[in-house]
Amino acid sequence: MFKKLFLILFFSFYYAELATANFDVKAKTAILQDYYSGEILYEKEPDISIYPASMTKIMTSIIAFDLIKSGDLRLDEKFIISEKAWRLSTSGYSSMFIMVGDEVSVENLLKGIIISSGNDACVALAEGIAGTEEEFAILMTVKAKEIGMENTNFANSSGINNPDNYSTVRDILKMSKYLIDKHPKFYQIFSEKKFTWNRTGGDPITQGNRNPLLYKNLGADGIKTGYLAVEKYSLASSIIRNGRRLIAVGSGFNSKNARSRESSKLLTFGLTNFDLVKISKANESFEKVDVWLGKDDSVDVYTKQDIYKTIKKAKKKLLKVSIKYEGPVNAPIKKDEKVAVLKVVYDDELVGEYDLLASKEVKQVNFVSRLLKSLNYLIWGDV
Quick one: 309 and 352 in the same domain? Predict the structure, then answer.
């Protein structure tokens, strides 16, 4: 009785291919992602094991942010500084310069970790939350597995050299994306360029953020540098520009200058070689589908999630977006009921499929109206 209906929407865009053969980043390992589409725009040995160094502090911050969000930790809560934490500030490591016996707020410790890259602040926060740094590292690893960091283990809170503290740039990317997704307000701390700590027994110390991209005209707003002699220089970075966000992670840069230069080059590559196309906005009407024997002849449909595709500028292809459903759809229809499927096709290959849900309830017409409409269809073939 009913024919299968296809609504085809054509977009003359370019579809994103993974890597570009003529582009290379001078790092041991690197990865670049378009945040909104989730598509990987560049990768170089993204799954080899690295020592994440101070990029570890991203997870240290996440544990605290999660606890604050759940109400189990407060920014104004204070932790007493142990001798173990203090010793890191006297051992040549990057430090916030806290003193034994100081009572330091969680907020100041987090800024000391994120902006000053203080290893002492990491230990103080870890001990305050979990009792010991070792127990805190277990929490970090559990969280890593929870968010899909399959090749990561944390052995400490700061990233100082330990063979059991390892990850990959792909996993660091997942961790960075989680931070931006789940804690956008706290993520803003990563863009702050300086932090002043009114230390005990001395003049205030102001330290600048170590992320070199914050001082360039790129639109960078985070996230964390790293350095270990065995790993050389590393950086997880993100920029937001012209409605797009890109996240890059690289490790094994030969110098600070190379870290800054090559990370900038990688992010610029993503901006200049790809465009972002918004196909559907979450919970907003995408299209109408026809309804049979309903009090409304059609119903708006929507997707639960934002749908974006990253498209390559240099190669024209046809990106097709279609709505597929057996239609008209029989009433009654419940609100949020799946009534159609949104398909995204590139070069005859399905690259995405998403449920389309009814935006409202559509009730069935009464018996007499159904009978008359059915007779009309049988006689005239008109629904």
Answer: yes
117 is catalytic: yes
- Angstrom distance (rounded) from CA 306 to CA 373: 38
Q: Of the listed 89, 95, 116, 117, which one is catalytic?
A: 117
For residue 352, the cross-strand partners are 344
Measured CA to CA, the distance from residue 197 to residue 84 in angstroms comes to: 19
In a shared domain, residues 312 and 244? no
Q: What is the pLDDT of residues 325-360, one digit of tens each?
A: 887 888 899 999 999 999 998 777 888 999 999 999
Work out how many domains the chain is built from and give that number: 2
Strands laid side by side in the 4-11 sheet: 4-11, 319-326, 338-346, 349-358, 298-302, 287-292, 329-330
Answer yes or no: is 193 within a domain: yes
CA 314 to chain centre: 26
What whole-number distance in Å separates Cα of residue 307 and Cα of residue 273?
Answer: 20
Q: Say what the pTM is.
A: 0.87
Neighbours of 256 (CB within 10 A): 15
Q: Tell me if residue 91 is catalytic.
A: no
Query: Under DSSP, is residue 311 helix (H, G, I), strand (E, B) or coil?
Result: strand
269 occurs within a structural domain: no
Q: Examine the fold and report which residue of 205, 233, 253 is the final residue of a domain before the chain moves on.
A: 253
Strands 274-280 and 329-330: unpaired
Please check whether residue 286 is in contact with residue 303, taking contact to mean a CB–CB distance below 8 angstroms.
yes
Helix residue ranges per DSSP H, 188-307: 256-273
Q: What is the pLDDT of residues 289-324, one digit of tens each?
A: 988 788 888 999 999 999 998 888 855 566 789 999
Q: Does residue 359 carry a catalytic annotation?
A: no
Q: Which is the catalytic residue, given 28, 37, 44, 54? A: 54
Residue by residue, DSSP assigns 27-62 as SSEEEEEETTT--EEEEESTTS-B--GGGHHHHHHH
The predicted structure's pLDDT at residue 110: 98
Which of 28, 37, 44, 57 is the catalytic position? 57
